[in-house]
Amino acid sequence: MDFIAILSIFVLACFVGYYVVWSVTPALHTPLMAVTNAISSVIIVGALVASAEAGSLAAKLLGLVAVVFASVNIFGGFAVTERMLAMYKKKERK
């Protein structure tokens, strides 16, 4: 595929992602965050496999960067999900 075709697919994916994310109701936010965490874990596995097979140092460093960014995304997603679930818990009365 040439560069213009790949760029077109990327731009269309950005538009679709934007409209999908901003049209989600707040009640569905927590389940979607859990799915996003699962997708990020797949990205980590793919980055580890790709960097293990890489021949150059630059490819291995990019794999490391991908693992770090996906890890931050996973841990941040779990933190946000925990806060969202805490909003629905009953508070203890003293």
UniProtKB/TrEMBL annotation:
<keyword id="KW-0997">Cell inner membrane</keyword>
<keyword id="KW-1133">Transmembrane helix</keyword>
<feature type="transmembrane region" description="Helical">
    <location>
        <begin position="6"/>
        <end position="25"/>
    </location>
</feature>
<dbReference type="GO" id="GO:0050661">
    <property type="term" value="F:NADP binding"/>
</dbReference>
<dbReference type="GO" id="GO:0006740">
    <property type="term" value="P:NADPH regeneration"/>
</dbReference>
<feature type="domain" description="NAD(P) transhydrogenase alpha subunit C-terminal">
    <location>
        <begin position="7"/>
        <end position="90"/>
    </location>
</feature>
<dbReference type="GO" id="GO:0008750">
    <property type="term" value="F:proton-translocating NAD(P)+ transhydrogenase activity"/>
</dbReference>
<keyword id="KW-0520">NAD</keyword>
<keyword id="KW-0472">Membrane</keyword>
<protein>
    <recommendedName>
        <fullName>proton-translocating NAD(P)(+) transhydrogenase</fullName>
        <ecNumber>7.1.1.1</ecNumber>
    </recommendedName>
</protein>
<keyword id="KW-0812">Transmembrane</keyword>
<dbReference type="GO" id="GO:0005886">
    <property type="term" value="C:plasma membrane"/>
</dbReference>
<feature type="transmembrane region" description="Helical">
    <location>
        <begin position="58"/>
        <end position="81"/>
    </location>
</feature>
<keyword id="KW-0521">NADP</keyword>
<dbReference type="GO" id="GO:0016491">
    <property type="term" value="F:oxidoreductase activity"/>
</dbReference>
<keyword id="KW-1003">Cell membrane</keyword>
<keyword id="KW-1278">Translocase</keyword>
<comment type="function">
    <text>The transhydrogenation between NADH and NADP is coupled to respiration and ATP hydrolysis and functions as a proton pump across the membrane.</text>
</comment>
<dbReference type="InterPro" id="IPR024605">
    <property type="entry name" value="NADP_transhyd_a_C"/>
</dbReference>
<dbReference type="Pfam" id="PF12769">
    <property type="entry name" value="PNTB_4TM"/>
</dbReference>
<keyword id="KW-0560">Oxidoreductase</keyword>
<feature type="transmembrane region" description="Helical">
    <location>
        <begin position="32"/>
        <end position="52"/>
    </location>
</feature>
